Amino acid sequence: MNGQFKSAISLLIIVAAVSVAPVCAQTSPVIDRSSAQPDLALTYTYIRSNAPPASCGCFSLNGGSATFAWPISTGRFAIVGDITAATASNIANSGAGLTLSIFAGGVRYEPRLGRSTLRPFGELLVGVAHSSGPFVQDPYSATNNANAAFAANMGGGLDMHLSRRLSLRLLEADYLLTTFDNLSNNHQNNVKLSVGIIFAFGRKQPGKYSGG
Fold it and tell me: pTM, whole model, 2 decimals?
């Protein structure tokens, strides 16, 4: 009896697998780059920065980013706007903390990969960096442009398409330049890493997607 029960369970598992396979194949996302949709990425962001003056004095900031992309032309290019905010405490053992905010916009390029669910991209953004907190006040009063300094964000990443509405940002890696006064070269070389989730908007275009 026990053997018959196990056999029945095994048969049910096989039948279920065979039944689900066509459904999975049908709902597997197939992407046409020309049907790209506007999307919003919400990510956790890690920034590795350097404290003034000059020498590394490296420290870490943790925060998040909201990035909106609006595709243009065939979907290979998009206009991008990004807001990032991250904080750190006890920088360079000074006991002082810092909040860094970046407001930037620019262009993204996304190459065609046929029907792959992976979507690499590269981008260049420029904008304004804002810093606040004890670290940019005394004894670091030389940071006269703490409220508004030039910022540039250059890099790229890799997304994975899950459905017509949902994707994962597996990794975004950027070089983030900021130009706060620091009594030396007045610029900071930062590494910015992000991972998160992406929500797409807009109506489905006939013949552009399969499933999802």
Answer: 0.76
List the domains of the chain with CATH numbers.
36-200 (2.40.160.20)
Say what percent of the chain tops pLDDT 90: 50
The residue type of 82 is D
Whether the ω angle into residue 139 lies within 30 degrees of 0, i.e. cis, is yes
Enter the tokens of residue 152: 């540039």
Identify the CA nearest to 106 among candidates 94, 123, 121: 123
> Of the candidates 194, 199, 197, 198, which has an alpha carbon nearest to the alpha carbon of residue 63?
194
Beta bridge partners, 177, equal 152, 189
- Cα–Cα–Cα angle for 43, 113, 77, nearest 5°? 60
Give kind and range of the element (H or E) at residue 13. Answer: helix 2-27
Of 186, 187, 178, give the one whose Cα is nearest residue 86: 178
Please say if the pLDDT value at position 24 is more than 90: no
118-132 and 77-88 beta bridge pairing: unpaired
**Contact criterion met (CB below 8 Å) for 94 and 53:** no
